[in-house]
């Protein structure tokens, strides 16, 4: 099945590239730098054609991207230094900082060797609940449930419905439907129980055979001690903060600092909002992150950094290094800044 949205976005990227618009526009709209967003980095994904393949890039692509950006004058810096550069308006040339969400084990086993090769820092955002098993990588669980079924029974407050998973196209539709149900209809604090009920009612035992794809605490401690690695916070349980009460949202944002200090011996200075899109973070959540004492907080909004972001350090956009767009040319176009207003209704300074 062809993803129409993906095809249109790739067409726009290619038009900007081949018409010469991107390189011509970069001096005017390219901003002062960029925060790159990763998730998984592995040459051997469990499901190469996964609906979640946007979360994974190959180490070889990361290697090419870093080399290309360095060759084009980008300085790769720590997130601390990136914040300082934003504060002074980006003086000193264009810069980039690499970030990675969720603490996937391959960040250590496959991404780190590439980063060491180039001497490139990374900030990894950790959600303790994911590491401890109190929270789930529900997007992977949903896909696993759909992949092992030809039809599912979905029990909701209004009754049971059958979800067709009989063909590859139907499976994609089923994943989208279940994702929407889980994230829009089910309360955040009930998500885990709902996921287990969905699995159990369809004959799947989530406690058996699920490989550990996230780092352990010992591995995170090892990474935290590495000179190229900074550990940031990603809430306690990877919750959609906008769907929580003020007390619960402040708890997720603030108390994770204490937990990470207890686990790692150091309080995190930087924060990433789970999901990071408009329905997951707004002005309220930005205020909570600021109140919690973080130096910076990042969203998943698409955009390059501009000098004006000095006033919005708790609502910083990122450029997603996406598994569906593993092309250095595509990333060059994104870094040119031409896609920033296209993705944000004309806004050049992207916040929330």
TrEMBL record:
Transmembrane segments: none annotated. It comes from the Bacteria. Gene3D superfamilies: Glycoside hydrolase/deacetylase. Keywords: Signal. CDD domains: CE4_Mlr8448_like_5s. The keyword Signal applies. Residues 94-352 form the NodB homology domain. InterPro entries: Glyco_hydro/deAcase_b/a-brl (IPR011330), NODB_dom (IPR002509), Polysacch_Deacetylase (IPR051398). GO terms for biological process: carbohydrate metabolic process. One of its GO terms (molecular function) is hydrolase activity, acting on carbon-nitrogen (but not peptide) bonds. Pfam families: Polysacc_deac_1. Is involved in generating a small heat-stable compound (Nod), an acylated oligomer of N-acetylglucosamine, that stimulates mitosis in various plant protoplasts. Belongs to the polysaccharide deacetylase family. This is Chitooligosaccharide deacetylase. It comes from Rhizobium loti.
